[in-house]
Amino acid sequence: MPGIVIVGVQWGDEGKGKATDLLGDRTDWVVKFNGGNNAGHTVVIGDEKYALHLLPSGILSPGVTPVIGNGVVVDLEVLFAELDALSARGIDVSKLRVSANAHLITHYHRTLDKVTERFLGKRQIGTTGRGIGPAYADKINRVGIRAQDLFDESILRQKIEGALDQKNHLLVKVFNRRAITVDEILEDLLSYAERLRPMVCDTGLLLNDALAAGEVVVFEGGQATMLDVDHGTYPFVTSSSATAGGASTGSGVGPGRLDRIVGIVKAYTTRVGSGPFPTELFDEQGDWLRARGFEFGTTTGRPRRVGWYDAPITRYATRVNGITDLVLTKLDILTGLDEIPVCVAYDVDGRRFDELPVNQTDFHHAKPILESFPGWHEDISTARTFEDLPQNAQDYVLALEKMSGTRISVIGVGPGRDAVIVRHDLVD
Predict the structure, then answer these.
(1) In terms of DSSP bridges, do strands 3-8 and 65-68 run parallel, antiparallel, or are they unpaired?
(2) 114 and 236: one domain?
(3) How far apart are the C-alpha atoms of 103 and 138, rounded to whole Å?
């Protein structure tokens, strides 16, 4: 049975939670392997809408064991608030498991994130201010605090002291903020220790045993390919590995156990925060697309930048991730357009690029070369087979598939759990 990785193809918000939910009744484990509460998944089940920020979306599926892997940075306040909110709505959250090696976000990480971003001024990256980057920086600098550290107060105090030695100098002398005491951080973290204890374990061992037993494990990536710290539009990226390779490093499961890589891509393109975006729309069509697609961040509520579908980005993501299947979401949002432009290449100072320019400066100045496809006006929200779609919608999907370098296996035609067309099974 497969290990299935789900990754975003563009700049996030493609609908990865829905794709994970689609696999729910055949999935035994769902693993969040990167990121933190700086992004969210929205899952609609019947008349209920669930906005998840830190938890794997598989927590909504009975019988699934949700796992927060070692590649995630965890804000315990957010974690337990989210668990309490789901419990209040009747969702069983008792199966959640958290890697002992997952790093924790503290008060000083959130503070540094916010003051540093303000300090950058016009050079701001566009972070969410939730401490994600500083927590990952501490991880790489080897002064981070892990979930397992909460269960040894002496070690925890030493680690907090080591982290604050440097950070308080920065807060006080550079940012003119008050120093943070060791005791206030210690007290805050220890207040979660006993509640966290039953959840913490060697999740890598659990997942490898599950795969060896023939169970289906889904690895759910946060953010997306173009926000990956190595392969995205650096420096306007997240601080973790959001591509398929991150599924191994962020979970403790070797790449040989990953059988299928599923890329989630919108029928148009969005991004949040700063950075290049060749197909971005600044006119009434952009306003229409944003309003119709309700393009506002699940976690931040920020309006998303919107633009047309970018085929070179999808080809790039297919190559970088080794994508075997694409899930095309929000096709229904394009209903009502007479013509649908698609970016097929870029123009950079008179030079044509059919693939992403390797030079970030070139990509920043890239102008989209657009090809238009006939639109449709029929309601497609009730379509459940490919043949149910209007011919122009079929032609649009087939054109995207041809340009993308891999097959489009699932098509989203509405926000509901069952509003999908399955062309190829993602599990078999």
Answers:
(1) unpaired
(2) no
(3) 9
Give the pLDDT of residue 262. Answer: 96
At 152, is the pLDDT very low, low, confident or very high (cuts 50, 70, 90)?
very high
Average pLDDT of span 221-247: 94
Residues in contact with 341: Cβ distance below 8 Å, sequence separation at least 6, in sequence order: 308, 370, 371, 372, 373
Q: Examine the fold and report which residue of 233, 261, 289 is the final residue of a domain before the chain moves on.
A: 261
- The reply to whether 109 belongs to the active site is no
Backbone φ and ψ of 323, nearest 5°: -65, 130
Query: 375-405 pLDDT, tens per residue?
Result: 999 999 999 999 999 999 999 999 999 999 9
Q: Which entry of 21, 28, 41, 109 is annotated as an active-site residue?
A: 41
276-to-95, 284, 355, 362, 419 alpha-carbon distances in Å: 40, 20, 15, 10, 32
Q: Dihedrals φ, ψ of 166, to 5°?
A: -85, -45
Give yes or no for residue 158 having a pLDDT over 70: yes
- pLDDT greater than 80 at residue 321: yes
| 284 lies in the same domain as 408 | yes
Domain count for the chain, please give it: 3
- Same domain? For 110 and 152 the reply is yes
For residue 171, what are the domain limits?
Answer: 103-194
Task: Say whether 166 sits in a helix, a strand or coil.
Answer: helix
To the query of whether residue 13 is one of the catalytic residues in this protein, the response is yes
